[in-house]
Amino acid sequence: MSIQRVSVHGGHSGQFCCHAKDNLEEIVRAYIAKGFAWVGLTEHMPPSDNAFLYPEERQAGLTAAAMAERFDRYMTEARRLRAVYADRIEILVGFETEDTTGAIELARKLVDHYRPDYIVGSVHHIDNIPFDYSREAYQQAVDHCGGHEALYGHYFDRQYLLLQQLRPQVVGHFDLIRIFDPEYPRHLGLAPVQARIQRNFELIQKWNLILDYNVAALKKGASEPYLSRPLLAQARRMELCAVPSDDSHGVAQVGLHLDEGIRILAEMGFDTQWRKPV
User: Fold this and answer.
1) What are the residues facing 170 on neighbouring strands?
2) What are the residues facing 226 on neighbouring strands?
3) pLDDT band at 1, cuts 50/70/90?
4) Where are the domains of the chain?
5) Phi, psi angles (nearest 5°) of residue 6
6) Threshold 0.90, pTM exceeds
7) How many Cβ atoms sit within 10 Å of the Cβ of residue 119?
8) In the prediction, which pLDDT does 278 show?
9) DSSP codes of every residue in 36-69
């Protein structure tokens, strides 16, 4: 039996995200055209404060309040699309978290209000510095922490706290902290970093959460998806669940590199009867 194409973390659109392209219905149609069995739409949550707007959001004249209204429209539209295309694809409606000041409290309120099918727990900030936004922001985070070892430690500590407080069904791009670090294999292998990774994996194991095997790293020039191969092997030994995602931000990215990710997971012995995060 062939392995189904799915994405546990995808469906960002230019309609509801300033760094994405196309509208959400076009993206859903692309998933259908490419034969996906199911997809999770996981738009970013709105910021908790205007202080956390990205430059492109400011340039678009947005505010935190305006983005909260846009997020409301996203939830409505995603559920409309789920109903419209129910006979062609299964759509799960969720959102992706942040970890800025006030974000976890806001995420809880969004979960209570919208009752999404699931959430993706992601960390994109270190002490409110958006480390994955640019190389300059990444270096700012390195300098702020006092070096790469401290940066990695801080990241995995924040991730652990987020997992504890939100218990997301999916853990987003587990080792995103390596994004602009060419020496990441060495830094991920440092004993203090490894201790934190093992701790986080043990919590994921305890709660039976899903690891997002995120192939979007490949489209940005990385040599391997998130998680890196040693961490993926570690997760496999612990019998953790990993499910592929394209983390698409437009029609052109739907399914991009996904088959390579599926091949890697299958070769490493992960269960390819992909578990849904509901």
Assistant:
1) 120, 210
2) 214
3) low
4) 5-267
5) -140, 165
6) yes
7) 24
8) 83
9) EEEEEEEEEPPPSSGGG--HHHHHTT--HHHHHH
Give helix 191-207 / helix 229-237 axis angle, nearest 10°: 50
Across residues 210-235, what is the average pLDDT?
Answer: 95
Helix (H) or strand (E) holding 72: helix 64-84
Q: Which two tokens stand for residue 237?
A: 């030994």
Q: Any idea what the Cα angle at residue 133 is, between residues 127 and 137, rounded to 5°? A: 55
3.30.390.10, 1.20.120.140, 3.60.15.10, 3.20.20.140: which CATH number matches 5-267? 3.20.20.140
CA distances from 3 to 94, 203, 227, 228, 272 (A): 24, 28, 20, 22, 7
Three-class DSSP category at 92 = strand
Query: Helices 148-166 and 135-145: crossing angle, nearest 10°?
Result: 90
Q: What is the mean pLDDT of residues 64-81?
A: 98
Q: Give the number of other CB atoms < 10 A from CB of residue 158.
A: 16
CA 132 to chain centroid, in Å, comes to 12
Confidence band for 2, pLDDT divided at 50, 70 and 90:
confident
